[in-house]
């Protein structure tokens, strides 16, 4: 009896969860105003001035506003809607860039940027009123005062004061900070010391989370630097500023002190509800008084809350996503075959199929590049990775410290690596081999293009003009391509033979390549390089060694690494942020490699002191070519990411510089047809029948005619998946009037959908066209408008009501024939339905049986033991 | 010496024990260079070469061992365990206080089922030695003991969450979490099953119970075998002793002989094991916490160690030392209760 009661209690406890899963199966939108993200954890702060990681920035960009934001072009496919070189107003309504120095600016000022501040923007805490220009000034000055170790402050110091950090040994430093940003009742202006600093870079810095604005008074009350609002605290003195400089933890991440409480007071669309770095959950809630209003302009809904769950275990995350308990999910590349259902067929991205209710945007270029770096002057003291001494001459059992200083050695390694195989095997093809650090997604990327082996004519000579590439903004060009390395062992051998006048080929070498634990991509690259190089000459020996990240970092700093693989993530999407670390003698990588070339240094500095886009493009083109010639490092891959979401989420778009989604632009739902009276005609009657379809469609949110698709859907026998077998596109006013013959097997149709109206070009091109070949249709749509395609893979079983109305008149002349056919079809359908029911119940029974069996085994065991 | 004095003395012994543990960890850490220890503060590629040196200087990472220990111990004595870099820059003490309740909740639900089931099965196995039930219990306990934790956890998740949808991962559902983190809900203990009742929201407690079922089953499956085996061997030993024969000769029933005489004596080694097991679960159920997304102290500590977060590792070491010391104390006191022959000198 006790056992029975226990079992009953267990079942009762479990019942509500079972119901919720069934709801998902019925395709209602779960949590219609709440979005759940299942991903891996990362945020460490909610203080914009502290934040230098994408996970924290993802939270901050949704709760704080910046002066400007990166623009969005909704007429492009979602993957390309986020722009990195165009800006739109946010807290600033208008601006003047790179103007002559302000009359009151310090004499070292080279230019001034003015921003007019929007009026009436409310803070999350109404106690602090609205955003004032002085708050903007405060936020930037506080950022410079805080300047935490390893933080992002160098980015604002570089243009404003031509420095990379605070210099408290300079007694005038507080005054310099004071004069760098100024404000009056309506405007804020920045006085830039850096000569001819590119406006593009400065604007890109201002558009990101670290440039967020907070109220001076609120920050002061919560332990931050006093700022202008509190002159009694002597804010602009060395003593006061150093008190708030580089703290161990930001007061905004530990308020009240010692509690670890996270606080914010932004003016962004969402308020922080919780950020628990132990339970790995953060949650933001809609700020009803957001100045832009709700929903966002151009959007048809909004989210009340967004909850982020950090879940390390992929199996758990996947289960949540498939069950509909998560709307967004991070899917590691290694697990793609589990969600791309036709993976075995090696489909192209356009042909990929996903489980019902799931959508994926593949091939998203990330602003991350990984390279093979050569150390020009290896530190030999205590170095375990360069074989045996002596370290000042070539020999088979070790290498000298200057081993990589011969360009022939570097080129030999560059040609030895099999880039294509590497990207195909390790990244499953989801990456590209860049030619230079100027990766896709950075400013000017479309003007600087590269060629691989297949484009060279003859080998190593680039094609002559004319080029089918964009002209430069001033109408000149296009520029010739930048070459890149490719896999060619013969060339590699020739360069090895040429190195050190043939001495290297004769004597050989031994050294080690390190990779950090758990980084399979780097390990594979190292092993592939080892195999390729060792195959050329039996005197060539490379060891591949695994070390943990602390050791890797230690050896990097000590300049003991020989040849190392490491990646770079963009701070802002401008090539300066890449060529500086990669090629400037004091840049991060160049410094650790001991690489330096005065000509290159000069070019890098020219790039950051030039305001003319055309000239900058040419500078970075020259640097690209120099990079190829000098080979200080070799680009291995630029990662391509994916975004996975449930199909009931609408409005997502990609911007490579965004740390994560901007949730203000997202909502849940899809367009549904205007409901009409139902007519009892079975959907199965559609089989092969010709019908006239005449109707008009409305967007229920705006009540205006909306263009879109009618999609014919074939349902699988197990009643679980739907396949698009054909489609019809309305005209731009949402009208359709046409005779059609839905393909055999069509059981349902569904209409438009989620968030995107078909733009005019698509309608003009395809209006009235019935496309009954699904693959052909998808390809066509893909060309025209990728985002629409993404919507129609929604597996939603749509109302049959409208069609039934249309059918009642359209089918009357042929009703008798159809009736006879219908009877047969009905009987067949009922059999199929029975089968479906059986399959469905049997699969449920199977799961239930397993569960019950386990419980039964336990009970049986206990019973046996008792006997 | 009375029991009270004994307890006081044992509690005072905690201090040198904990200091010893932290000193040991500090000594081990000296095998890492300052640059290696700086990696806790630099997540990816350092953006400027001087960043690493600035971090080393700021946190005294290149100072001699005794200076570093001095910095740390003076902070600890003032009640500050430092900042947990691996847990988003919150104070280590806060991280511990937030992580412990989740693990504690998991353990208080797991331990009774592990111990009582283990004792019950152990006795049954011993009493029915070499019979079918004995073999079955031993086989199943060996299987449970041998199962990789993550594997059994994933199997449970895929059946009961992915397949049947009866339960889900995490500590609470999205709806319940929304309520728990709202200003109206007071997290008195951060133990959701208790806080739900204290806030008068029973559905939160039920929601929390639904989420705790699978991790508890998983911990029971993998831990019960230890108790079964110890109880069985201990019971067999007791059953072979003379006083059992005497008791049987007196005509006592089998139940009385087993439950009143043999069981009580056989429990002593189980008590020892239970103390260690409880302490072990409180300080290290990393895999179960990870797979079921049930973030507790074990998960926190594992992350801290992987990221060379020294203040967190030291804070956790203090906690572990404290848990084991307390567990041993409780075991010793329980000995005295179970076996009147054991008394404090």
CATH class identity of chain B = Mainly Alpha
Q: Tell me the name of the CATH class of the largest domain in chain A.
A: Alpha Beta
Please outline the major beta sheet of chain A. 9 strands, mixed
Number of domains of chain A: 4
Summarize this structure as a short list of keywords or feature phrases:
heterodimer, A: 867 residues, alpha+beta, D-Maltodextrin-Binding Protein, domain 2, Dipeptide-binding Protein, domain 3, four-stranded antiparallel beta sheet, 33% helix, globular, B: 345 residues, mainly alpha, MetI-like fold, two-stranded antiparallel ribbon, 74% helix, 1% strand
Give a structural overview.
The complex is a heterodimer of chains A (867) and B (345). Chain A contains 25 helices and 29 strands. Chain A is α+β, with helices and mostly antiparallel strands and 867 residues long. In chain A, α17 (576-583) runs antiparallel to α19 (598-608) and α19 (598-608) runs antiparallel to α20 (613-630). Chain B has one domain (91-338): MetI-like fold. Helix content of chain B is 74%, strand content 1%. Chain B has 15 helices and 2 strands. A two-stranded antiparallel ribbon of chain B has the order 1-2. Chain B is globular, with a radius of gyration of 24 Å. Chain B starts with a helix and ends in a 7-residue tail after the last helix. The chains are: A alpha+beta (867), B mainly alpha (345). Chains A and B meet through α1, β8, β10, α9 and α16 of A and α2, α3, β2, α5 and α6 of B.
Write the layout of secondary structure elements.
The complex is a heterodimer of chains A (867) and B (345).
Chain A (H helix, E strand, L loop, with lengths): L1 H24 L8 E6 L14 H10 L4 E5 L9 E8 L2 E8 L11 E7 L15 H14 L7 H8 L11 H8 E3 L3 E6 L6 H8 L9 H6 L16 H6 L26 E7 L4 E6 L18 E6 L3 H9 L5 E2 L6 H4 L18 E17 L32 H10 L2 H8 L4 E2 L17 E2 L30 E2 L5 H10 L4 H5 L1 E8 L3 H15 L5 E8 L1 H9 L5 E7 L6 H8 L4 H6 L4 H11 L4 H18 L2 E14 L2 E2 L16 E2 L22 E6 L1 E2 L4 E2 L3 E7 L6 E8 L5 E6 L7 E4 L8 H7 L3 E2 L2 H11 L1 H7 L8 H10 L4 H52 L1
Parallel strand pairs in A: 1-10, 1-11, 14-15, 16-17
Antiparallel strand pairs in A: 2-3, 4-5, 5-7, 6-7, 8-9, 9-10, 11-19, 12-18, 12-19, 13-19, 20-21, 22-27, 23-24, 25-26, 25-28, 26-29
Chain B lengths: L2 H27 L4 H5 L11 H9 L6 H13 L5 E2 L5 E2 H36 L4 H15 L2 H15 L10 H7 L11 H7 L3 H38 L2 H8 L4 H30 L2 H6 L5 H10 L3 H29 L7
């Amino acid at each position: 009896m006790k056992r029975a009661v226990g079992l009953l209690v267990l079942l009762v406890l479990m019942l509500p969860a079972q119901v919720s899963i069934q709801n998902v199966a019925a395709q209602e939108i779960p949590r219609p105003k709440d979005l759940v993200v299942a991903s891996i954890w990362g945020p460490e702060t909610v203080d914009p001035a502290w934040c230098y990681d994408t996970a924290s920035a993802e939270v901050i960009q949704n709760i704080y506003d910046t002066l400007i934001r990166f623009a969005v072009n909704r007429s492009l496919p979602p993957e390309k809607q986020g722009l990195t070189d165009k800006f739109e107003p946010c807290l600033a309504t208008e601006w003047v860039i790179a103007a002559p120095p302000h009359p009151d600016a310090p004499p070292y000022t080279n230019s001034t940027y003015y921003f007019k501040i929007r009026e009436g923007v409310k803070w999350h805490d109404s106690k602090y009123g609205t955003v004032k220009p002085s708050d903007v000034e405060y936020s930037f000055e506080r950022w410079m005062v805080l300047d935490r170790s390893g933080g992002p402050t160098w980015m604002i110091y570089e243009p404003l004061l031509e420095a990379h950090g605070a210099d408290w040994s300079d007694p005038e430093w507080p005054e310099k900070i004071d004069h760098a940003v100024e404000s009056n009742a309506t405007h804020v202006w920045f006085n830039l010391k850096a000569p001819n600093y590119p406006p593009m870079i400065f604007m890109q810095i201002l558009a990101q989370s670290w440039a967020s604005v907070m109220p001076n008074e609120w920050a002061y009350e919560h332990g931050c630097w006093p700022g202008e609002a509190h002159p009694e605290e002597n804010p602009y003195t060395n003593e006061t500023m150093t008190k708030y400089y580089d703290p161990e933890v930001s007061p905004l991440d530990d308020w009240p002190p010692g509690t670890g409480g996270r606080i914010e007071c932004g003016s962004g669309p969402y308020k922080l509800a919780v950020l628990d770095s132990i339970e790995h959950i953060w949650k933001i809630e809609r700020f009803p008084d957001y100045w832009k209003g709700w929903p966002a302009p151009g959007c048809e809904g909004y989210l009340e809350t967004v909850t982020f769950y950090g879940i390390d275990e992929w199996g758990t995350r996947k289960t949540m996503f498939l069950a509909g308990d998560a709307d967004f999910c991070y899917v590691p590349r290694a697990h793609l075959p589990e969600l791309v259902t036709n993976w075995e067929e090696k489909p192209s991205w356009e042909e990929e199929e996903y489980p019902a209710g799931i959508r994926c945007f593949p091939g998203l270029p990330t602003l991350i590049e990984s390279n093979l770096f050569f150390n020009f002057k290896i530190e030999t003291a205590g170095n375990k990775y360069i074989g045996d001494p002596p370290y000042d001459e070539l020999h088979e059992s070790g290498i000298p410290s200057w081993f990589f200083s011969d360009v022939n050695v570097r080129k030999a390694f560059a040609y030895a690596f099999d880039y294509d195989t590497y990207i195909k095997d390790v990244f499953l093809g989801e990456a590209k081999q860049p030619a230079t650090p100027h990766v896709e997604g950075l400013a000017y990327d479309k003007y600087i293009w590269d060629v691989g082996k297949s484009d060279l004519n003859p080998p190593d000579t680039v094609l002559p003009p004319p080029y089918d590439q964009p002209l430069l903004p001033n109408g000149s060009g296009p520029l010739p391509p930048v070459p890149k390395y490719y896999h060619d062992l013969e060339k590699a051998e020739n360069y090895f033979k040429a190195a050190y006048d043939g001495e290297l080929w004769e004597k050989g070498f031994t050294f080690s390549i390190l990779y950090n634990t758990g980084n399979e991509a780097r390990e594979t690259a190292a092993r592939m390089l080892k195999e390729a190089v060792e195959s050329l000459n039996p005197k060539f020996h490379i060891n591949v060694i695994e070390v943990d990240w602390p050791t890797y970092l230690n050896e990097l700093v000590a300049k003991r690494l020989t040849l190392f693989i490491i990646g770079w993530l963009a701070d802002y999407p401008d090539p300066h942020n890449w060529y500086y670390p990669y090629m400037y003698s004091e840049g991060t990588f160049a410094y650790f490699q001991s690489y330096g070339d005065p000509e290159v240094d000069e070019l890098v500095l020219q790039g950051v002191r030039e305001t003319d886009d055309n000239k900058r493009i040419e500078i970075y083109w020259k640097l690209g070519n120099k990079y190829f010639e000098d080979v200080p490092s070799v680009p291995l891959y630029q990662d391509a990411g994916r975004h996975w979401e449930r199909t009931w989420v609408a409005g997502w778009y990609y911007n490579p510089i965004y740390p994560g989604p901007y949730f203000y632009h997202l909502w849940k739902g899809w367009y549904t047809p205007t409901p009409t009276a139902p007519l009892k005609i079975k959907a199965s009657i559609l089989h092969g029948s010709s019908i006239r379809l005449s109707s008009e469609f409305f967007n229920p949110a705006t009540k205006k005619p909306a263009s879109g698709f009618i999609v014919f859907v074939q349902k699988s026998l197990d009643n679980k998946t739907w396949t698009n077998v054909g489609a019809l596109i309305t005209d731009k006013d949402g009208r359709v009037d046409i005779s059609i013959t839905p393909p055999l097997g069509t059981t349902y149709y569904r209409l438009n959908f989620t968030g995107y109206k078909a733009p005019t070009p698509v309608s003009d091109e395809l209006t009235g066209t019935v496309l009954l070949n699904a693959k052909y249709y998808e390809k066509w749509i893909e060309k025209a408008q990728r985002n629409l395609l993404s919507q129609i893979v929604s597996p939603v079983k749509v109302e049959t009501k409208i069609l039934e109305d249309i059918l009642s008149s359209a089918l009357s002349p042929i009703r008798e024939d159809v009736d006879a056919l219908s009877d047969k079809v009905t009987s067949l359908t009922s059999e199929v339905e029975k089968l479906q029911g059986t399959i469905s119940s049997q699969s449920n029974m199977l799961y239930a049986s397993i569960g019950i069996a386990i419980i039964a085994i336990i009970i049986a065991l206990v019973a046996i033991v008792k006997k | 010496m009375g029991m009270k004095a004994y307890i006081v003395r044992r509690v005072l012994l905690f201090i040198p024990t904990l200091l010893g543990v932290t000193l040991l960890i500090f000594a081990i850490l000296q095998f890492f260079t300052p640059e290696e220890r700086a990696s806790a503060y630099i997540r990816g590629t350092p953006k400027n070469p001087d960043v690493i040196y600035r971090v080393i200087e700021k946190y005294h990472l290149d100072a001699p061992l005794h200076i570093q220990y001095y910095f740390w111990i003076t902070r600890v004595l003032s009640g500050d365990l430092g900042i947990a870099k691996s847990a988003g820059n919150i104070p280590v003490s806060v991280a511990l206080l937030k992580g412990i309740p989740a693990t504690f909740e998991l353990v208080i639900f797991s331990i009774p089922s592990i111990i009582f089931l283990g004792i019950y099965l152990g006795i049954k196995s011993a009493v029915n030695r070499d019979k079918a039930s004995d073999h079955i219990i031993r086989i199943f306990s060996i299987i449970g003991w041998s199962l990789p934790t993550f594997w059994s956890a994933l199997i449970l998740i895929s059946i009961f969450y992915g397949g049947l949808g009866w339960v889900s991962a995490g500590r609470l559902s999205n709806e319940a979490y929304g309520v728990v983190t709202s200003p109206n809900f007071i997290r008195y203990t951060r133990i959701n099953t208790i806080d739900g009742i204290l806030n008068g929201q029973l559905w939160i407690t039920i929601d929390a119970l639904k989420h705790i079922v699978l991790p508890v089953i998983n911990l029971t499956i993998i831990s019960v075998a230890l108790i079964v085996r110890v109880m069985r061997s201990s019971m067999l030993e007791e059953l072979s002793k003379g006083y059992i024969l005497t008791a049987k000769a007196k005509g006592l029933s089998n139940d009385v002989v087993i439950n009143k005489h043999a069981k009580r004596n056989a429990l002593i080694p189980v008590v020892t094991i239970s103390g260690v097991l409880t302490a072990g679960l409180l300080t290290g159920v990393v895999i179960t916490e990870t797979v079921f997304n049930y973030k507790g102290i074990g998960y926190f500590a594992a992350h801290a160690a992987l990221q060379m977060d020294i203040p967190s590792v030291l804070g956790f070491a203090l906690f572990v030392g404290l848990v084991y010391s307390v567990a041993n104390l409780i075991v010793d006191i329980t000995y005295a209760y179970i076996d009147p022959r054991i008394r404090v000198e």
